[in-house]
Amino acid sequence: MALIYKISPEVLWRQAEKDGSFTGAPIDLQDGYIHFSTAEQVRETAERHFAGQSDLLLVAVEADTLGGALKYEPSRGGALFPHLYCVLSMASVVWVRPLPLGGDGRHVFPELT
Predict the structure, then answer these.
(1) 66 vs 86: CA distance, rounded Å
(2) Is the distance from CB of 73 to CB of 87 less than 8 angstroms?
(3) Residue ranges of domains in the chain
(4) Cβ density class 48-67: b for 16+ within 10 Å, e for less
(5) What pLDDT was estimated at residue 76?
(6) Whether the predicted pLDDT of 113 surpasses 90
(7) Which of 5, 10, 32, 87 is the most exposed place for a label (fewest CB within 10 A)?
(8) How far apart are CA 3 and CA 62, in angstroms?
């Protein structure tokens, strides 16, 4: 199973769960796709875009269920990042876990599988 990851404010994600789908965070809506990261990229994504933010969730999504709407496109330094060009169905979500801040101010990640 190939997992990709979305970091989301908890309040935004909990609303998506009630709605049955995730349309994206403001940056996703602005860019026209939902930003994801691979396991190798997600820690850097947290440091660059979510530094010091609490009340975040880490959402693991089964990439293979997303079909052709998932594209891997170059971003930082040419790295290929997963971008989803449709609404995310909750059926593709494998798990959701808290992404707390540690004593050093950096996010504490669960084991990524």
Answers:
(1) 9
(2) no
(3) 3-98
(4) eebeeeeebbbbbbebeebe
(5) 66
(6) no
(7) 32
(8) 5
